[in-house]
Design goal:
Helices cover 48% and strands 0% of the residues. By secondary structure, it is mostly helical. The protein has a single domain (15-62), classed as Homeodomain-like (Arc Repressor Mutant, subunit A).
Length: 64
């Protein structure tokens, strides 16, 4: 679905970081290096960004 606005564990805002992360990873950069450069240091925030699967485009055709 959509990226969470805040980290589930600590509450740090992560939605603003996700677009930059996604763009740079799609350009070929390593995910760990991108998260380090964006100063995402906590494991909980890294997990929230790294493990997110964007399913919005797949779900839209099935809406009423």
């Amino acid at each position: 679905m959509m990226i969470p606005v805040r980290c589930f564990s600590c509450g740090k805002p992560v939605s603003a970081i996700y677009e930059e992360y996604k763009r740079r990873v799609n350009e070929g950069e390593e995910a760990k290096a991108v998260l380090d450069d964006l100063k995402v240091e906590r494991y909980c925030c890294r997990k929230t960004i790294f493990s997110h699967v964007d399913l919005l485009d797949e779900i839209l055709p099935f809406t009423i």
